Amino acid sequence: MQITAIEPRKKGLSALYIDGEFAMKLDTEVLLAHRFDVGREIDDELLHACVLDSDTKRCKDKAMWLISFRDHSRRELFDKLKKDYPEDIAESAVDRMEELGLVNDGRYARRYAADLIELKHLSERGIRQKLYEKGIDRELIDEILDEVEIDEAAQIRAVIEKKYARNLSDEKVRRRAVNALQRLGFGYAGIKSVLSEYIDIEEY
Fold this sequence. Notes:
By secondary structure, the chain is mainly α. The protein has 3 domains: 3-99, Winged helix-like DNA-binding domain superfamily/Winged helix DNA-binding domain (Arc Repressor Mutant, subunit A, Orthogonal Bundle); 105-147; 152-195. It is built from 10 helices and 3 strands; from the N terminus they run βββαααααααααα. It has a 3-stranded antiparallel β-sheet. The protein is elongated and about 85 Å long. The protein starts with a strand and ends in a 9-residue tail after the last helix.
């Protein structure tokens, strides 16, 4: 097989032509590192090695790009990378991010749990579910929840004050409030207890 053309493309890629036909797009830096030049004869083994190196580099670059926007859990990052790259390459990229200290499930989960408490006003059950959905290990979830104190009545109160307090005399609003709070993981008894602070109705 002979390389008959190499044409630059967007995002650091180059189009590789073999025996007069387009073959694939590969990372430009990797092509240069492998000394792929027009006219060079290559075999399947050399081409495969170049493709593997290109995918590995591009996958790591994408991991860095994703992390630059916000923190990710290990599984969350892996799930995003495997959409575009083989699973073994995606896992290798995530491993490298961990080695660099850019991915750390403990740090990520603690920050995320703090946001869920302070900004979303979730219950302990709701926080547990959200962390589990992000791929956080159950033992780590238990450890984090043991470290924090969640005043569920205060959390319920915060949600009511933010969205529902002015119109709780309206039965439809009360039902919406109850449904919303249950979706956040709060039990009916706790919700009813806090609602009784706002309006004197036996059943909600």
